[in-house]
């Protein structure tokens, strides 16, 4: 007896890929789940197995950027021996390398609406993940500090890291340098600055960073 052919199941990553291709080809978000599924020859139920709406899918893409970034870092056998500053540098370099690979989509997603706040709403899950990542770095550092008064605030550092990411994201979006080398420089200077501020070290780095921002007309 002949076996029935098995229908290959659609995966979450495949639907994400379909969506990213769709918006770049049509230069607009699909008007309905029905039209999106029909154009990709999939059933609506296959979409809803993973996402409840287009907005949910959009947010999931940014969370996927985060998990993929962490996955890349985990492959580095030396990562766990890095200082917290080097771990943060590795995170930002890895994240923006991934964003650069998907630059056309990222620019579309962050310029879809006239309101920047509305565009940034899809980054809510990413914000939570980045803040957790930053908090864990501080908690690890605090574990080696005996006196409570000298311990750092994970919440404060986490919020600062998120603001830092938003700054770097905007800088990268407007960067026209070859290979986005100015973004790489901004990452290095901003990470050094935030650690200097957090550790109460001299302000030379802050002044240097301020001059850099002014030079790039980004202040």
Polypeptide structure, described:
This protein is an all-alpha fold and 219 residues long. Helix content is 68%, strand content 0%. Helix 5 packs antiparallel against helix 10, helix 9 runs antiparallel to helix 10 and helix 10 runs antiparallel to helix 11 (204-215). It is globular.
List the helices and strands and how they pair.
Layout: H1 12-26, H2 33-39, H3 44-48, H4 54-74, H5 84-101, H6 103-110, H7 116-120, H8 124-142, H9 154-174, H10 181-198, H11 204-215
**Cα radius of gyration in angstroms:** 21 Å
Q: Give the DSSP E fraction (strand runs of 2 or more residues).
A: under 5%
Count of runs of 4 or more consecutive helical residues: 11
Uncertain regions: pLDDT < 50 for 5+ in a row? 1-5, 145-150
Helix content: 55-70%
Oligomer: single chain
- N→C terminal distance: 73 Å
The biggest beta sheet is recorded as: none
Mean pLDDT: 85
DSSP E strands, number: 0
Q: By helix and strand content, what is the structural category?
A: mainly alpha
Overall, the morphology is: globular
**Helix-strand topology string:** HHHHHHHHHHH
Could you name the key traits of this structure?
disordered N terminus; 68% helix; mainly alpha; 219 residues; 11 helices
Concise synopsis of the structure shown:
By secondary structure, the protein is mainly alpha-helical.
